[in-house]
Amino acid sequence: MKIRCVASEPVTIPVTEAKVPIQHYLRQPQRLVHAIADPRLMDVLDGDRYRLRMHPLNLLELYHFQPTVILKVQANSQGVVNLHSEDCTIQGIDYINDRFNLNVDGKLMPVVKDAQTYLKGLAVAEVTVDIPPFLMLAPLPILEKAGEQLVKGVLGRIKQRLLSQLLKDYRAWAQDAPTALAPTAQSSLSIS
């Protein structure tokens, strides 16, 4: 029997623009990855891909495991960043690793509304996993709820790192960025 857990996490971050617009910063997807991931748990791969090891998790205080996900992170010239999981492995429990699937999709983009720049984004994570035999007697709604809380917790931690690290890194980067990147007219997506 499989359970499916889906969670999403929206984010809206007001941005105080530095001398270089945030779109230029976001064109470097590795900066976003460094902002959301613990550098000690990340490896840079080829082709805008990154291996991220999450901090160990536990489910129902019974299973302790560490997901490792391969993310492809790409940005366009407008500073719109898209990320998608390509692969995931679970370290710690071979039974679950062989029966586990994770899909993560996310998008972050600069928008302007009423002369204020914001970063708006959404991350969606979906996990499907076969229930181990000894949990087959547990009520399905309890297992699904525990799984959803786990997935939502992971997205929440990523959001907190994004909120605390991204703008700090952007300001430090903009301070050191060449003045050639500073715009004469600001270009970004606008919303109404």
Residue share in β-strands: 35-45%
CATH superfamily: START domain
| Overall pLDDT confidence | 83
> What sort of overall outline do the alpha carbons produce when their principal axes are compared?
elongated
Rg over CA atoms: 19 Å
Topology order in helix (H) and strand (E) letters: EHHEEEEEHEEHE
Structure annotation, total helices: 4
Helical percent range?
25-40%
Spans of 5+ residues with little confidence (pLDDT < 50)?
184-188
Provide an overview of this structure.
- The protein has 192 residues and is α+β, with helices and mostly antiparallel strands.
- The chain has one domain (2-176): Alpha-D-Glucose-1,6-Bisphosphate, Chain A, domain 4 (2-Layer Sandwich).
- 28% of the residues lie in helices and 42% in strands.
- Strands 1, 2, 3, 4, 5, 6, 7, 8 and 9 form a nine-stranded mixed beta sheet that branches.
- A hairpin with a 5-residue loop joins strand 5 and strand 6 (81-91).
- The longest helix is centred in the C-terminal third of the chain and has 37 residues, at 140-176.
- It is elongated.
- Mean pLDDT is 83; it is low at 184-188.
Keywords:
single chain, 9 strands, 192 residues, Alpha-D-Glucose-1,6-Bisphosphate, Chain A, domain 4, alpha+beta, 42% strand
What's the topology here?
Layout: E1 2-15, H1 22-26, H2 29-36, E2 42-44, E3 49-53, E4 57-59, E5 63-75, E6 81-91, H3 94-97, E7 100-113, E8 116-130, H4 140-176, E9 189-190
Parallel strand pairs: 7-9
Antiparallel strand pairs: 1-8, 2-3, 3-5, 4-5, 5-6, 6-7, 7-8
